[in-house]
Amino acid sequence: MPKIVDHDARRRELIEASWQVIATDGLEGVTMRKIAAEAGCTTGRLTHYFADREALILASLRASYDVTGDRARSSIANDTDHKAKLLHFAEEMLPADEERLREWKVWIAFWSAATVDKALAVENDTRHQAWADELADLIKGAAPAVNARQEADLLIGLINGVGLHAAVNPTKENLDRARRLLRGHIKQLTG
After folding, report:
1. Range of the domain at 36
2. Can you give the CATH number for the domain in which 125 is found?
């Protein structure tokens, strides 16, 4: 009887291995061989799921945004207060633990590469626009009198700025400062 393989689970394992390599070595240090070693498989298995390095990198970027978005949506699923939803959703984006710090390291690597890689730049913009749309919807519920889309763009700028600082130098003080600034801004925004 042939072995049943969960191809989605295999893809996830390979993508998670790529995140670890990217977080450790940066995007310029990513090779199919390193990812295969991190995943404990052969490069043949890796190329079975991803045609080449670029396909894997693009899939990794998409998955990193998906995982973060899913976690943020899950964190607010039971909130009924609009202000609490907005705050919890935004705070999920900060590098507050090892998993989220790894996500930030991956994003930083992608942002750098997107400055010279059009496909990554387009994908990054698409994902940021979707994130802004989600934030705008949350802002509409928490602060109906403001320009929600403009505030979403400003909030993304704040999250990216304080998150980047906290990810580059991940100290408790930097994370606490990021939280204070984010909470203060949301409090001011929502009255």
Report:
1. 7-190
2. 1.10.357.10
For the chain, give me the number of helices (H) and strands (E)?
9, 0
Q: How far apart are CA 97 and CA 52, in angstroms?
A: 31
- For the CA atoms of 93, 99, 103, 108, the dihedral, rounded to the nearest 10 degrees, stands at 100
Number of Cβ within a 10 Å radius of residue 98: 10
Say if 143 falls within a structural domain: yes
Q: How many domains does the chain have?
A: 1
Q: Is residue 44 part of a domain?
A: yes
pTM of the model: 0.89
Q: Is residue 2 included in any domain, yes or no? A: no
How far, CA to CA in Å, does 89 sit from each of 23, 43, 104, 173?
23, 37, 16, 21
List, for residues 56-91, the tens digit of each pLDDT value. Answer: 999 998 999 999 999 999 999 998 999 999 999 999
Question: Assign residue 40 a region: left if phi > 0, alpha if psi is -120 to 50, beta otherwise?
Answer: left
Q: Are 94 and 159 in contact (CB under 8 A)?
A: yes
In a domain, 184, yes or no: yes
Distance, in Å, from the CA atom of 28 to the CA atom of 22, rounded to the nearest integer, reads 8
